[in-house]
Amino acid sequence: MVRMDPQAVLEGRVPGRPPVGLILGLIVSTLCALVVLGALAWFGGAGFVAALLLAVLPIPPLIALVLALDRLEPEPPRTVALAFMWGAGVAVLGALVLNTAGMIYVTVPIFGETEGHFVSATVGAPLVEETLKGAVLFGLLWFRRNEIDGFADGLIYAAMVGLGFAMMENITYYMRALEEGGTGQLTAVFVLRGVIAPLSHPLFTSMLGLGVAWSATHRRGRVVAPVLGLLAAMVLHGLWNGSAALGAAGLVVVYGLDFCLLLVLIVIVLLERRGIVQRIERYLPMYEGTGLVTPQDVRMLGRLSSRRAARRWARATGGPMAARAMSDYQLAATELALLHKRAERGVADPAWLAQRRDALLGLMAVARQAFLWAPQHGVTGPPWAPGGPSGPPPVVG
């Protein structure tokens, strides 16, 4: 069987060449996060451990919730990890330095102690923090534009940046609450920030995520869309920070606005998922002549439940290697359909499109051979095409 690096093909990079930029970004982001944690531990005392545990507690289910939005075409794990660690490391450390310097040297000297803190919270902090969080999204747009296939991808990366930032920021809020009001105030702050509104930072940065996704997948508005997205993120962040000064009414308005925004983003993701399925049904049948796709395969690829059933069948009949091959086949087929989306919008070089198409078809061929030859004797075929053309080939000899 032909040896191939499926992950390299799916990520669109040269096989055998590691993503050095991503690895360096992860290292730098992790080091920055460790510096922040070390400083918080040094100044936080005994309250640091409790604050850290409470800040980390909601993160795994929130990450699972975010990644569940992207099950048809999951993003590369290393890139997702970079987004999260950038938010937890580079963005937090940069914001800590710049926000503090801004208050000491700009807002407080100009506006006084009380008004200076308010201006810093509602203007300075949103400008600094959303710019720092958004830097990794601009980096992905510049260096790895072809990985962003739609709004869902932009939202996934933005949400991961926001979750990383919020986790580290919450440590400081929990430490302060424990110091000022004991366990009672700590519980109240945890319920507010960790339970009721854990998605505030992801929601802010999601505005830039939409703008970056538009820029990556459209010919018009490539410059304007990210700029507008960044401005919208700053405005939402500023409204959130300033809502406390407006009393209960301000909090209700801001919470209601964020809830409506969350619903809109969910609708966008669901509509885009439907669009992916429609492209699978429209474009993949043209490859039936290659023997890599059948009508049964197209139907299987269009439903998440059918995809899961196919992976279970492959694992049951051929073990983990066959299950991995089935997953590679499904992802490559989805990427192939999304490649046609880029072609129809004219946002990619024709030579690159042809090279990418051939690489994906090659991966589909290798993966298909692996999971169709894997079944043991007596198995009639996969559940989505029993006895049909997608079934395992006959045993020879």
Automatic annotation (TrEMBL):
InterPro entries: PrsW
Name the UniProt record assigns to this protein: Membrane proteinase PrsW, cleaves anti-sigma factor RsiW, M82 family
Transmembrane regions listed in the UniProt entry: 20-42, 48-69, 81-106, 118-143, 155-175, 195-216, 223-240, 246-271
Cited PANTHER family: PROTEASE PRSW
Domain of life: Bacteria
An example Gene Ontology molecular-function term: peptidase activity
Keywords for this protein: Membrane, Transmembrane, Transmembrane helix
Native species: Thermomonospora echinospora
